[in-house]
Amino acid sequence: MVELEDDVQMVSSELDRTFIFEDEGHTLGSLLTYVLESFPETNFCAYSVRHPSENKIYFRLKVKEGNIVEEVFKRGIQELNKVLNHVKKTFNKAITNYEGTK
């Protein structure tokens, strides 16, 4: 589940948003940060786990003027999904090839 949260110090903006992922951790945070940092529209991208007993990540994204943060975020999720599907396909192919050599 993903929630949206505006930072207390910041006025809500199309350029800056904190997304909260429940039941997620460093794996998703790190991968999504890697993908979104590669986008030229990204000004800042980071995640945090505020407390070890809290099972959620807070994902902060700021985009450059002329962009909408939610659109860039959605594109990042779609790009990450493509990467993970490629990894899954490559892994399954390697397993099939390995089993064929036994």
From TrEMBL:
Q: Which Gene Ontology cellular-component terms appear in the entry?
A: RNA polymerase I complex; RNA polymerase III complex
Write the record's keywords in alphabetical order, separated by commas: DNA-directed RNA polymerase, Transcription
Question: So where does this one cross the membrane?
Answer: none
The protein's matches in Gene3D superfamilies, at most eight in alphabetical order, are given as: RNA polymerase, RBP11-like subunit (3.30.1360.10)
Superkingdom is Eukaryota
Record-level Gene Ontology MF annotations = DNA-directed RNA polymerase activity; protein dimerization activity
InterPro entries assigned to the protein according to its UniProt record, in alphabetical order: RBP11-like (IPR036603), RBP11-like_dimer (IPR009025), RNAP_AC19 (IPR033898), Rpo11-like (IPR022905)
CDD domains tied to this protein: RNAP_I_III_AC19
Report the residue ranges that make up the DNA-directed RNA polymerase RBP11-like dimerisation domain in this protein: 18-89
GO BP: any one term:
transcription elongation by RNA polymerase I
Q: Spell out the family assignment given in the record's similarity comment.
A: Belongs to the archaeal Rpo11/eukaryotic RPB11/RPC19 RNA polymerase subunit family.
What this protein is called in its record is DNA-directed RNA polymerase, RBP11-like dimerisation domain,DNA-directed RNA polymerases I and III
Native species:
Cinara cedri
